[in-house]
Amino acid sequence: MVGATAIALAAAGTASALAAGTLRIGMTASDIPLTTGQTDQGGEGQRFMGYTVYDSLVEWDLTSAVKPSALVPGLAVSWAVDANDKTKWVFKLRDGVKFHDGSAFTADAVIWNLDKLLKTDAPQFDKRQAAQGKSRIPAVASYKATDPLTVEITTKTPDATLPYQLSWILMSSPANWEAQGKNWDAVAQKPSGTGPWKLESGFTPRERAELTPNKNYWDPARVPKLDKLILIPLPEPNTRVAALRSGQVDWIEAPAPDSVASLKEAGFTIVTNSYPHNWTWHFSRVEGSPWNDIRVRKAANLAVDRDGLNELLGGLSIPAQGFMPPGHQWFGNPTFKLSYNVEEAKKLMAEAGYGPDKRIKTKVIISSSGSGQMLPLAMNEYIQQTLAEIGIDIEYEVADWNTVINIWRAGAKDPSAKGATAINYSYFIQDPFTGLIRHLQCNLAPPAGTNWGYYCDPEMDALIDKVRNTFDPAEQDKVLQQVHEKYVNEALFLMVTHDVNPRAMSAKVKGFVQAQNWFQDFSQITLDP
Description:
The protein is of the alpha+beta class and 529 residues long.
């Protein structure tokens, strides 16, 4: 192991010798996530540099491994929609909260943070953070502080998913931005949130970041027990495993599946849990895309040997039966079954006008590693082989995960997509907006949102409008079942698998509860000497 990674690991090892309570984590990301508030590097960025250093108004309950997470109060102690005007929401804020720099968290700070994402002429507007956060809150039309601890947000139309959207929006300190010369690059080296962890000593891009406890955190139960949390980017699975075995890190995300048995034998702990995640190809629906033909989309879904892929992954996956995992409350009863049926797939391809003398040749964007991407190179090679059997020849455009995210946000029509007709993406599917709505609503095509493939169907839009206008959770679930049935019955994605979020860690790591969530709480963790 040489170069920057070796230097970072050596430095982390020195830190560990000085503090028995230092937890060193090998991330799948290739770089330290953006530190200024809205993180990049996908869900992993939010996990390690989002909900650690920062808080949002609405957060997730990360205390249980045995039940799905629900929304809980964060910097807002309560929220409610106006009974007479379903576009108006009132958020009551937590009193007495301080940013790491000592300044007070108030309603004005919320407005300032929304402006930094949505108001391009605001002095604090930050294009990098806006690229990560703006598409998360498309419902927001306007907002105002009505008193120091109350914020009123108005949505463009009634939207019952607003609290889920706001769970992604993290609050950074306006006073710190002023103190750092109103320069976000300076803030990146000395950020200030309200979260349970602080980033005080800066960070080294692509090498390491050191987080220390916020002893004055507003929730005493979540004041970290560790002395330090060190984040180290290690995008290659075997490098992560080697670092864990050698004692250079204490915890790794996504160990290589073929290493799991030997890691267990060596005394390392393997932690898995079901959580709301899927691994898909998001199809382009622009003119000329082969995926505009439902027969081709269905054929591709029938050509994927999901059980074989699960074997490749060492059993660390749940083969897809739909966009949502089997048994999910939104699964419904789709009539198209994602079986492995090559003959039926070939029949559909023939009906669509393809055969041995007329094959589909197309390009797909994939990553080399990244948050929730599992083993993207090996998995996509497997899919490439299975699709070739039915006459679909795939060329891959490989990029690092953060580049793939940027291409995804830009959309299939953007030059950065290089004519690709699908993008391999792992999705957080925990809430109605992030899980389903944002991918396929007509008016959320880029740059307005992340409908990457420019799909547009009035029937789907009508269902989505019904979701947004259904404020009763049980009734909303019924509408979401109809949305999911349409996803599956029309094969709107290549639906491949669901991750079980495997982590490998030293037996010295104690107190970790792997929530059924993309995000995790590191506050309860301790490390034996």
